């Protein structure tokens, strides 16, 4: 099939390139000309493992355009950003504008697939713009950054909200090769599913963090408790890693948007509010743990800045609040991240030192603070670390490291050694 992708960000690119891998012909459109030029050279403007290789492999089936008039095909995916407005609500302006523009130029009936995360009822608004000239479908995405290609090709489920059988048939063709995973439902339920899924995962993390804080006070070990509860099939092991909490472009924005949807509809989302509250406090608590230890300023090596491993994404990363807190207490920061240094420079500017590798960060430091659990940090050579650090102290915000016994080690929710 010929499929257009409007919006070539992280979601659009992954969706389109993976759909090309499934055999479809893809036209990408973006209103950022620079981005389109980069993509035409088969360069990917974001760091997402495997995506570039897949783009090169399928390049003959992929086209990049800047003009929306050239981006019209029978199935059009809208992968546009829905950032929070000042109020915390999802701003659907760019989706609405693009729909108005498309409605002016399409000649025969199209299928408009909304991939962006949008408040319940948005597809209905888009439908009004197109009238009978389009089927509007909700197809929320559940890809994780860093594993986007894998997640697309191996989905737990593909949720598709449709309003009629014609749209159902077309979407079956789009996802022909993954069709066993499709769950069809009504459009509003599909829109709601996206928010409910992200909020549930976020609150699972906040819940385990709250239990971890209690473990730390009582002498229990959160790692054992995780196995103890996660082995119950009804609970499951995933998203039960205690630490400094969640960040990124999705959980923070979607939990807030869900609260706003609740407010608009007279339903207070108490659990989601509590999850956000716990998440913010988790960053504070970890920062204060470091401050209380040193009492006064110290020189700290920060390992990991991205909101999670395998991405260069710094959006709402816990590292931002933690580093800003330490800077405000006159700590000196030497930071290293395998991929996020460039983005970090936009945030911290000259305020911190950007290390070229792990050991450059550790050299002469009074302690190591781990904020992102990159695989690379598993292989720290403790013999070298021992020699180059001023003090052998570790604060592990992800309970990830296994240093030798002569290092003082503080994790989250772990008993005192
Ligand atoms: C999340 C969802 O997992 C995806 O299903 C969804 O498609 C995506 O949002 C989205 O809405 O676009 P993502 O933000 O890429 O994906 O990241 P996750 O892997 O879910 O991690 C989110 C945060 O939770 C990270 O900061 C991570 O460090 C933290 N986390 C995760 C924990 O603190 N503990 C855990 O056990 C798991």
Summarize the structure.
By secondary structure, this protein is α/β, with parallel strands linked by helices. It has helices at residues 10-21, 33-40, 51-57, 93-105, 122-130, 148-153, 165-174, 187-218, 222-230, 251-264, 270-294, 318-328, 341-348, 358-362, 382-388; strands at residues 2-6, 25-29, 62-65, 75-78, 110-114, 134-138, 158-161, 182-185, 299-303, 332-336, 353-354, 367-370, 393-396, 408-410. The longest helix has 32 residues, at 187-218.
- Helix content class: 40-55%
- Ligand kinds: uridine-5'-diphosphate-glucuronic acid
Order of helices and strands: EHEHHEEHEHEHEHEHHHHEHEHEHEHEE
Tally of individual helices: 15
- Shape from CA axes? globular
Gyration radius, rounded: 23 Å
Q: What is the rounded distance between the termini?
A: 60 Å
Sheet of most strands: 6 strands, parallel
Class from helix and strand fractions: alpha/beta
Report the portion of residues in β strands: 5-15%
- Low-confidence parts, pLDDT < 50 over ≥5 residues? none
| Spatial ordering of strands, largest sheet | 3-2-1-4-5-6
Mean pLDDT, to the nearest integer, reads 96
Detailed description of the structure:
Helix 7 links the parallel strand 7 and strand 8. A six-stranded parallel sheet has the order 3-2-1-4-5-6, sandwiched between helices. The protein has 15 helices and 14 strands. The chain is globular and about 70 Å long. The chain is an alpha/beta fold. Helix 1 packs across helix 3, helix 8 packs parallel to helix 11 and helix 10 packs antiparallel against helix 11. The mean pLDDT is 96. The structure holds uridine-5'-diphosphate-glucuronic acid (UGA).
């Amino acid at each position: 099939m010929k499929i257009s992708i409007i919006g070539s960000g992280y979601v659009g690119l992954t969706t389109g390139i993976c759909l090309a891998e499934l055999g479809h012909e893809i036209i990408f459109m973006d209103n950022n000309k620079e981005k389109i030029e980069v993509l035409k050279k088969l360069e990917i403007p974001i760091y997402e493992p495997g995506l570039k290789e897949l783009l090169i492999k399928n390049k003959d089936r992929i086209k990049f355009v800047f003009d929306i008039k050239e981006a019209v095909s029978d199935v059009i995916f809208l992968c546009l950003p829905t950032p929070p407005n000042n109020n915390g609500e999802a701003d659907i302006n760019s989706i609405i504008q693009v729909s108005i523009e498309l409605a002016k130029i399409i000649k025969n009936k199209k299928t408009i697939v909304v991939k962006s995360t949008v408040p319940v009822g948005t597809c209905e608004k888009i439908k009004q713009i197109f009238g009978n000239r389009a089927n509007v479908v909700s197809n929320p995405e559940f890809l994780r950054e860093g594993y986007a290609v894998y997640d697309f090709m191996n989905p737990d489920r593909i949720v598709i909200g449709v309003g009629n059988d014609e749209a159902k048939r077309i979407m079956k063709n789009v996802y022909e090769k993954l069709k066993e995973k499709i769950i069809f439902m009504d459009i509003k339920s599909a829109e709601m599913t996206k928010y409910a899924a992200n909020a549930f995962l976020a609150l699972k993390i906040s819940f385990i963090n709250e239990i971890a804080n209690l473990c730390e006070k009582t002498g229990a070990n959160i790692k054992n408790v995780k196995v103890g509860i996660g082995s119950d099939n009804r609970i499951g092991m995933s998203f039960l890693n205690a630490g400094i909490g969640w960040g990124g472009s999705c959980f923070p924005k979607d939990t807030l948007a869900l609260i706003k949807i609740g407010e608009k509809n007279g339903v207070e989302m108490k659990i989601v509010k509590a999850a956000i509250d716990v998440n913010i406090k988790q960053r504070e608590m970890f920062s204060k743990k470091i401050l209380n230890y040193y009492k006064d300023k110290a020189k700290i090596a920060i390992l990991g800045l991205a909101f999670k491993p395998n991405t260069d994404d710094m959006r709402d990363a816990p590292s931002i609040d933690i580093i800003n807190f330490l800077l405000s207490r006159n700590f000196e920061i030497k930071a290293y991240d395998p991929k996020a240094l460039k983005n970090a420079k936009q945030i911290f500017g000259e305020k911190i030192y950007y290390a070229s590798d792990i050991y450059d960060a550790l050299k002469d430091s009074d302690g190591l603070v781990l904020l992102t659990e990159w695989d690379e940090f598993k292989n720290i050579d403790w013999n070298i670390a021992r020699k180059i650090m001023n003090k052998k102290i570790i604060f592990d915000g992800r309970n990830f490291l296994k240093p030798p016994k002569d290092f003082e080690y503080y994790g989250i929710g772990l008993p005192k050694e």
